[in-house]
Amino acid sequence: MWFFARDPVRDFPFELIPEPPEGGLPGPWALHRGRKKATGSPVSIFVYDVKPGAEEQTQVAKAAFKRFKTLRHPNILAYIDGLETEKCLHVVTEAVTPLGIYLKARVEAGGLKELEISWGLHQIVKALSFLVNDCSLIHNNVCMAAVFVDRAGEWKLGGLDYMYSAQGNGGGPPRKGIPELEQYDPPELADSSGRVVREKWSADMWRLGCLIWEVFNGPLPRAAALRNPGKIPKTLVPHYCELVGANPKVRPNPARFLQNCRAPGGFMSNRFVETNLFLEEIQIKEPAEKQKFFQELSKSLDAFPEDFCRHKVLPQLLTAFEFGNAGAVVLTPLFKVGKFLSAEEYQQKIIPVVVKMFSSTDRAMRIRLLQQMEQFIQYLDEPTVNTQIFPHVVHGFLDTNPAIREQTVKSMLLLAPKLNEANLNVELMKHFARLQAKDEQGPIRCNTTVCLGKIGSYLSASTRHRVLTSAFSRATRDPFAPSRVAGVLGFAATHNLYSMNDCAQKILPVLCGLTVDPEKSVRDQAFKAIRSFLSKLESVSEDPTQLEEVEKDVHAASSPGMGGAAASWAGWAVTGVSSLTSKLIRSHPTTAPTETNIPQRPTPEGVPAPAPTPVPATPTTSGHWETQEEDKDTAEDSSTADRWDDEDWGSLEQEAESVLAQQDDWSTGGQVSRASQSPTGAAGKLRAPGNRAGRSQAPRSHLLTVHGWPASITGVAQSPATRATPSLPCLHVPAPSRGQTLGVRTTGRASRLTVVKAELARKKREERRREMEAKRAERKVAKGPMKLGARKLD
Q: Which of 337, 322, 327, 314 is nearest to 288 (CA)?
C-alpha cells in the first residue's frame, strides 16, 4: 500500500503573494506579503528557510518563533498563525511594512509629521517598558529593522530573535554575528571585565537612542555620529542625550522616559498622543468622558494622518455608536473620517450605520443627520432611500420643533432625485401642501415653496400640472413677505413647465396682483416675472410655429435638467432663504397661515394701517391643492345667494368708532395684531360674504411664539409628556370671553397683552338687530294692504 504524505505548506491556510520580499532585513527572516486563502485578507509572513550548516541561526529563528507565539501586547507585532517544518519556518502576523520603507515612502509623499513620530516612539518605548518591567526580558535588538508599521500608522516592535531573560535563567545574550545589527550595541558591552555598573534596561535604552537618531537623520553611519543630534526636535534633545550617555547607570527606565517626554511642553505632550491614549482606554471611560471626547475630536481630525483616521478612529466611532450609546456626537467625526474612504468602503462601513441612525428617535441625531445629508447622499441607492430612509425622514414634517421641520424640507432637495413615483408625487406633495397651508412659521412656509420650485422638474407631468400653479399662487397670498417672493420666483424658475394658456389665464393674473404689494421686494420680482412671461407670449404670438418648441417640457417626463436655464436670472436656492430663518422670525411677527391675508395698497402717513381681510384656509391634501382655489370662490358665491339679506355688512360708523378706539389704546399697547384684528376686513370696509360678525371660529387657546429663539436648536430634547420644546418658550393665553377682544402688541422686544371692553361694538350690534327687525315688520305691514285691495277688486 502506498502512503502519500501531505504537504503542510500546501495545506497552510495562508499563501504567499508571488512578489519579492519587502526590503532586505538583516537577520535570518525574509518578509513576504501574503493573504488568507478563505477571505483574502492581507497578512505579513516571515519566512525562514532551514539551511544545512546554519544550526545557530536555526536555533535563533526557532526561539523567535516561540517568542512570537507567547508574547501578546498592543505594541508588539501581533502573531496570527505559524508553520514549522523541517525545511522552513513561517510566522504569520498582521499586515505591516518595515519602518525604513515606510519612512522613505512618507518622505516622498511630503514628509512625516512630528505628531506621528511622537506617537510611534511612544509605542516602541511602551513595548520596551512591558518587556523590561513586566516580563524581565531584554529585547537586545532595538533598531530600525526591528520596527514595523501597520496600515493605521501604528508602530510595532518585532525582531525578537536575540531576546533573553534579564534574570540570567537562559544564559547570556545570544551572539548576533551580523555587523548591521552589532553597530547598535552600547560601548559597555565591549568591556568584558564586568566592572561597569549598569541597569538591565541600559543596553536597550542605548539602542532606543540610536533608533531616534535614525528616524530624524537617516541611517546611522557610525556610533560617533550620535554626539550630534542633527534634526532631532529641541524638546526631545535633553531626553535623547540621557539615552546615549556614556554612563549606563544614568540611562532612564523606559517608564520614566515616557513620563519625562509626556510632561507639559514635552515632545510627546500633544493632542495626537492624548487622542490615541484615550482610544486605547475608551472601553473603561465614563459616558460623560466619551461624549466630551467625541465632541472635541472633529476639531483635531484635520491635523491627524489619513491612515490613522481610517483604520483606528473609524472603528472606534462605529463601536461607540453600536455598543456605547454615543448618540449624535459621533456623527460629525464619522462623516469627517468618511471623506477618506473609497465608495466601496463607505458602502460597507458608513451606510449601514447611517440607515440605522435614521430610525432613531433622538432629536439631536435626526437634525444632525439632516444637516449633514449632503456628505453621504451620493452613496445611498434608490431602494435604500425609499424603503429605509424616507419613511423615517417624513416624520420630521410633523415634528413640533421648527428646526427639524425646516431641515426636513431642505433635505428633500437631496432626496427627491432618488424617490420613487409614490413617495415623490403623492406622499411628499401631501406633506408640502400641509406645510405651506398650515405651518405657523413663515420661514418654513417660505422654504417649502422654494424647495417645491427646485424639485419641480423631478415631478411627473400630471403632478406638475396639478400642483405647481396652485402652490405658487397660494404662496403669493402668504402674509409672510419672503414667502410671496418665493412664490414669484417659483413661477419664474419653472416657467418652461406651463402651457401658454396657463401662463396667460392663471399665472399672469396672479403676478399682476402683486404689482401693488406693500413690499417693494415682492413688487420688483413680480415685474421681472411678468416681463419674462409676456416675452414668451409675445414671441409665440409673433411666430405660432414656436409653440411646440416652447411647450416641449410641459408634458415631458420628469427630468432633473428641466428648468435650469430658466432660473438664470432668478438665482434662488434654499440656502439663500432658509439661512436667514432666525433673522426673519425675529424681524417679522410669526403669523399662522390659518388666515390668508390679501395684500393691500400702502396707506398714507397718519392713517392707521388697514386690517387685512382674513380668508379661512381649508385643510389641504395633495389631491385638493389645485381644486381648493376654485371651490373657495364657488362656496362664497353660493353662500352669498342664500344669505344675502341676512348678512351683516358693517358700516362706515363702525369703521370710525374702531379707529378711535385704536387711537385711544395706542399708548397702553392696545394695537391689535394681524392675526387678531377685527373680522370686518380692511379698515372696516365691506366684508367678504360668508364672514358673519361674531361667528368666526376662534381657537380655544392662542399660541404666541416668543420672538428671538435661537437659530440652532441642535441637541435639545423634547419632553414626551408635554411635547413642548424647552428652547422655544411659548405662552398659552386663554380665549377671550364673550364681549371682549384680545389685543397683542409685539412691537419692541417684549410682547404685551391688552384686553379691551367692546361695549360700543356690542351696543351697535344690538341697534342693528333692532333696526333689522323694524324693517322686516314694516315690509310685512306694507305687503298686507296690497293683498286686501286685490280681494276688494274681485
A: 327
